[in-house]
Amino acid sequence: MRLTAPFSLLLMTALLQACGGGDDPALRTLDGQTPLVIGHRGASGERPEHTLESYRLAIEQGADFIEPDLVLTQDGAMVARHEPMLDSTTDVASKFPASRMRTKNVDGVPTTAYFASDFTLAELKTLRAVQPRASRPQGFNGLYEIPTIEEIITLAKTEGARLGRTIGIYPEIKHSTFHAVEAGFGANTFEDKLLTLLHLAYGNTASAPVYIQSFEVANLQYLNGRTQLRLIQLIDADDVKDDGSLSLVAPYRQPYDFVVRGDVRTFADLLTPGGLDFVKTYADGIGPWKPYLVRTVNDGVDRNGDGVVDGRDRRVEGSTGVVEAAHARGLRVHPYTFRDDAGIYGFKDGRAEIDYFFKLGVDGLFTDFPATGVAARNALR
Ligand SMILES: [Ca+2]
């Protein structure tokens, strides 16, 4: 049946709205492309973080990138752990005596722990991952190994080929200064190792499905002179205050290489117009903690009426302008960390929070629950 013009228009509008696309404005990402869902430590809300099984679940759920944090072993292997310490995410204490613990300076904080850099890869392979958050599933503890970056790249490529889509990797160089000085590897050894491996696996090109991230600055500047792979400056803070401003307390106040060099700039200083101009000289984007992008205020009102005033009840005051200022300079914006079960500021749940950030125009985001991110991302299409 041929439809009259007004009727077909109505039908099309109805169909578009049924698909969720009718009222969406154009995407406000830097390149107009759909934002990326980055599986933060894999699907770490559901599996012990930084295991092949956590990354595999993130891929199954539709994540575009998987995110391994990297630390070095005694024999120089790159393995996935969020900290150079092994205590909270593995069963190391049940497998090695306390005499293997050491006290080291981790970004200015004296820390006594089992350090990955005091164990060989063969020793680390005898460990099994555990879930560090008591509120998350404990049933996978003791099952999974600590993976190397080589194993993670193989997983991403194998799964990508099987699924017919590109699975990117988003490695973070953890504690560059710690590895150079305290663990004794020397300046830029970590960076050189990672670049050599990534260039071999993906080539030296900005179109590779790779982002390298760091909270430090000098190592990203060093990398910028040696690779076309894309670089992301992470921007940390200690806490968010009631008025929405960021609390900057060491060791979350400044990039640690700034501390060592006597550079007084804070993380927040890197997001001012001048700070973003500086970041643009060596990086392709920023990875800020999310309260830097959306201002929320704790005004004591129990907005969701559950009898408790917490982060979810905060009043959302809108963009801080950082996304817009970064985009104006051609910098991508990938905020962290979105969690269905923790750290939600100003929204009833994790999905509503992600929806808001996607509408704001972020180019991707790190989430412990990639399925939630993928559902929100698909609703934009
Ligand atoms: Ca409440």
Shape: globular
Q: CATH class, please?
A: Alpha Beta
What is the total domain count?
A: 1
Count of DSSP H/I helices: 13
Largest sheet: 4 strands, parallel
Keywords: Glycerol metabolism, Hydrolase, Signal
GO molecular function: glycerophosphodiester phosphodiesterase activity
EC number: 3.1.4.46
Signal peptide: 1-18
Plain-language structure description:
With 381 residues, the protein is an alpha/beta fold. The chain has a single domain, classed as Phosphatidylinositol (PI) phosphodiesterase (TIM Barrel). Helix content is 31%, strand content 16%. The chain has helices at residues 5-18, 52-60, 92-95, 121-124, 149-163, 176-182, 189-202, 218-224, 256-261, 273-280, 322-328, 350-360, 370-380, and strands spanning 36-40, 65-67, 69-72, 78-80, 102-106, 109-113, 168-169, 172-173, 211-214, 230-235, 239-240, 246-247, 285-288, 294-297, 315-319, 332-333, 364-367. The strands form six sheets. Strands 7-2-1-17 form a four-stranded parallel β-sheet, with helices on one face. Strands 9-10-13-16 form a four-stranded parallel β-sheet, with helices on one face. β9, α8 and β10 form a beta-alpha-beta unit. α12 (350-360) packs across α13. The longest helix is centred in the middle third of the chain and has 15 residues, at 149-163. The chain is globular. The chain starts with a helix and ends with a helix. Bound molecules: calcium ion. Calcium ion binds at residues 302, 304, 306, 308-310, 313. Belongs to the glycerophosphoryl diester phosphodiesterase family. Residues 35-377 form the GP-PDE domain. Residues 1-18 form the signal peptide. InterPro entries: GP_PDE_dom, PLC-like_Pdiesterase_TIM-brl. It is an enzyme of class 3 (hydrolase).
